[in-house]
Design goal:
It is a single chain. By secondary structure, the chain is α+β, with helices and mostly antiparallel strands.
């Protein structure tokens, strides 16, 4: 499997994107996860010992001890604060044509098509790479607050 395929399998099995592109590491961790799902995780005595150690244990290990189902729920990635709430319609006139994009929970919808990013929508409309936030006039909340306080 390529690194990209391993990363996709990681997302499928762990419910979150991987933070590494190290192929050997991904193969080892994925093999462990597949075995864990097939045969069960740590023994009850191992989990009891981990609980005993409590605060001595690194935080990242404690986070993994939360009970999980056989199928992990997909982790929600932090939402960019520049993106308006779900259901908002962004409008932009480009070369005399009005374009409307609807903000969805999983990306954006434009002309009946789904796009992962605003930049992908802007590129589809213009045919050239654009920063989606710039194209649709969205700014960081911090910048908007500074402009309002200065006025």
């Amino acid at each position: 499997m390529s690194v990209g395929q391993l990363a996709e399998k990681w997302r499928e099995l762990y419910g979150e994107p991987t933070r590494t592109r190290n192929k050997d590491y991904l193969k080892k961790r994925l093999a462990w996860r597949i075995q864990e799902l097939a045969e069960g995780g740590l023994s009850a005595s191992a989990l009891a010992r981990i609980t005993e150690l409590g605060d001595q244990m690194p935080e990242r290990w404690r986070m993994r001890l939360a009970p999980t189902d056989a199928t992990p729920a997909p982790a929600l990635e932090p939402r960019d604060p520049r993106i308006p709430p779900v259901g908002t319609v962004l409008r932009r006139v480009f070369e005399g044509v009005a374009h409307e994009v609807t903000v969805c929970s999983e990306g954006f919808e434009y002309a009946g098509q789904r796009f992962k990013t605003l930049s992908a929508v802007a590129k589809h409309i213009t045919g050239t790479p654009w920063n989606g936030f710039l194209f649709f006039g969205l700014k960081k909340r911090v910048e908007a607050a500074r402009e309002e306080s200065a006025a």
